[in-house]
Amino acid sequence: MPKKKILKLGVPKGSLQESTFKLFRKAGYNFSVSSRSYYPSVDDPEIQPMLIRAQEMAGYVEKGIIDCGLTGRDWIIEQNAKVREVAELNYAKEGLRPVRWVLAVPNDSKIKKIKDLNGKRISTELVGYTKRWLKQNKVKAEVDFSWGATEVKPPLLCDAIVELTETGSSLRANNLRIVEVLFESTTRFISNRESWKNGFKRRKMENLVLLLQGALAAEEKVGLKMNVPKSSMKRVMSLLPSINSPTVSQLAQEGWFDVDTIIDEKIVRDLIPRLKDAGATGIVEYPLNKVIP
């Protein structure tokens, strides 16, 4: 019998886990995992998923232990991993924004700039990159690996930290201020370079990415449809932004049209009253799972 075709997929365990599963669900893939298992099941027999910490993902993909996975650009850089970055997927633990790696110090610290780090002690999970960053800036400082709870370590256990932040709230809660942003990071879909050369695996990954990007594109958009009399069409159409242009269909009732469009969710609350004033009726807002350009 021919060997079953399988794509080995790494799913990030930890802070990105729930947001990643949510994104896959919107893309049409349903995962289930028990609290003690590192091997989720998915409703696609050609995908073999495994939960792997984002910090380790790029290394396993580079070595070909898994074919592909999702991880942050930060951990690809940290490991200097030789992988193919198939796509950027702009989502994080708490929203659809990049995360930042920052240099932070206590509010009352005398450290105001990078040069003030000379002779100081820094705590971080991002040890390799931090050392390279200090060397580029000609600063000599001791860099310690942090096993977690990095924000609580200054000033007793270190002078400064290089830490990941999405909103900055945890830093503020621990009386820390940002001295400098080292770089921004987003989630990436990465592939082993040899796996990318395999026709089946490449097509499978490309299809996965297409659907994941479509699900992400739908996160901040909604569908809007309404009935519009011919006399109001010009005014209503002038108010409607769209990816391309609204779909307009004539209704059975003479002189009336159905208008359907996709818009940014953030403008809906201001737009609907204006559409109503312009003559639209029967306005319906509906959620989207995927938007494929």
Describe the structure concisely:
The protein is built from nine helices and 16 strands. It has helices at 17-27, 54-63, 73-79, 127-136, 169-173, 193-197, 199-219, 233-239, 268-278, and strands at 7-13, 31-32, 41-42, 47-53, 68-72, 84-89, 99-106, 121-124, 142-145, 160-165, 176-185, 187-191, 221-229, 247-250, 256-264, 281-287.
What does this entry look like structurally?
With 293 residues, the chain is of the alpha/beta class. It has three domains: 7-96 and 187-218, D-Maltodextrin-Binding Protein, domain 2; 99-185, Periplasmic binding protein-like II (D-Maltodextrin-Binding Protein, domain 2, 3-Layer(aba) Sandwich), CATH 3.40.190.10; 221-287, Alpha-Beta Plaits, CATH 3.30.70.120. Helices cover 30% and strands 32% of the residues. It contains nine helices and 16 strands. It has helices spanning 17-27, 54-63, 73-79, 127-136, 169-173, 193-197, 199-219, 233-239, 268-278, and strands at residues 7-13, 31-32, 41-42, 47-53, 68-72, 84-89, 99-106, 121-124, 142-145, 160-165, 176-185, 187-191, 221-229, 247-250, 256-264, 281-287. The chain has a five-stranded mixed sheet, sandwiched between helices. A five-stranded mixed sheet has the order 9-8-10-7-11. Strand 8, helix 4 and strand 9 form a beta-alpha-beta unit. Helix 2 (54-63) packs across helix 3. The radius of gyration is 24 Å and the shape is globular. It starts with 6 loop residues before the first strand and ends in a 6-residue tail after the last strand.
